[in-house]
Amino acid sequence: MRSLFAKSATLLTFLFVVQAQAVAAQPINVVALQQEHSNKVVFKIRFDNGSVADPKGKEGLTFATASLLAQGGAGGLSYAAIQDKMMPWAASYFASVDKQVTTFTFQVPVDFTEAFYPLVKNVLLAPNFSEQDFTRVMKAQQNYVDQLVRASSDEDYSKFALEDLLFRGGNMQHLVQGTSAAVKSISLDDIKRWYKHAFTRNNVTIGIAGNYSDALLSRLKTDLAGLPDTPYTPVAPSRARTPDGIEVEIIAKDGAFGSAIFTGAPLPITRADDEFAALMIANSWMGEHRKAYSRLYQKIREARSMNYGDYSYIEWYSAGGSNQLPPSGVPRGSNYWSIWIRPVQIATQLRSQYPELADIKIGHAHFALRMAIREFDLLIKNGMSKADFLATRTFLRSYTKLYAQSPAQQLGWLMDSRFYGRTDYLAELDRLLEKTTLQQVNAAIRKYWQTDNMFVTIVTDTSEAQPLADSLINNTASPMSYSNQVKAGLPPEILAEDEVVAVYPLNVKKVTIVASADTFR
Predict the structure, then answer these.
(1) Residue 27's pLDDT band (boundaries 50, 70, 90)?
(2) For residues 172 and 52, is the Cβ–Cβ distance under 8 A?
(3) Of the N and C termini of the chain, which has fewer Cβ atoms inside 10 Å?
């Protein structure tokens, strides 16, 4: 009997070893873009983790780990020594963390590839994890969640606040940098353990572009097989909530420069769906990012000079304040559509500038929100015209070809394509746009856009918060406030439209005021 058990144990051990070898032998996913005339080599090493994978109570751990890898020493060299070593080569690397992926990007001129490659390997496989680097990196991360996110840009602040509201209670809620309390709790040992758990050969994709050799790619694959072999299952992102009516969260901030507005609602499709192309056409006409021809820009910015611009989106748009074109590296499976109303003036500003406005109670936020939602309602009701559809589709087919100009951008978009189950999304998108009809666009508008149930976040000055909240919840008329000089130069049709917008009913069911200091805690 003991002999039988011994034989069984030996057999099980053999099977386990064979199975383990089979797993280890599985190839790492590779996205390759060989460009023999390029003067550089780009590596993008992507891990399918992102902030949604952060453990409860350790929100920001993925960001902290990636930051320490990218901004710490490696292979026995200090971070400063690595930077000094790279300077003559004009090489660089950085990490970017989003909700579902973490990407390390390395770029180097072709002539210095061999000298640079050991640094790529060491950053990913042999981090120093020094206490000094840890202290420096975590201090910066803590400062961001405690101070910078509230102080640097009210536009980004309102955008992150919208995600906090949309995904409240789920793993998509928190900033990729984490929450204030969670970041305080992260230790160097937490990062070491997380590196072994979430930055593994089992959730990595290799991207390489430019003028590289087959031998270099082979070497890269062999080396990255040395990443931790911990089993890893990507964490599913939580879904955006659907509010009951329009729910508004006003963030009261001392010294806010105007009212920064973001509003949005769940969207059940992504680039993985062919209908996304049809909705892209409608969205481009309504609010293409940084484009003056779009409807929202023309109505709010151009005709009324209320702010710097007004745009709409059907997916996350990273760093919209600085990016003119949508960046790669931020693919998401949990989606929502949104409207960005850049800061409009508050009552105290208008009263101080124009004596004729001395009696106004609120600034332009309520009017601007009404106008934006009314424009969507009109589009949902009437659809796009044939002429607008044809012009916008033609524009998009040209414009999307600008998305990926450099080898790094081209590689990034190819890697994002694989995330969505596609091969080359930009090429496929052109074909989808070509065959999309006006009827399909208008059907997509009515299927996926509605304004009765939305979340709205507004970052505004403390002085404006309560009067604005009262106006929204009571559906109070919000006439547009012009100086006499500006009003005298406006055409009658603008003023007539203003009267309609001022009383346009919004389905506001809930308004909450939150102190700025209480956000992202």
Answers:
(1) confident
(2) yes
(3) N
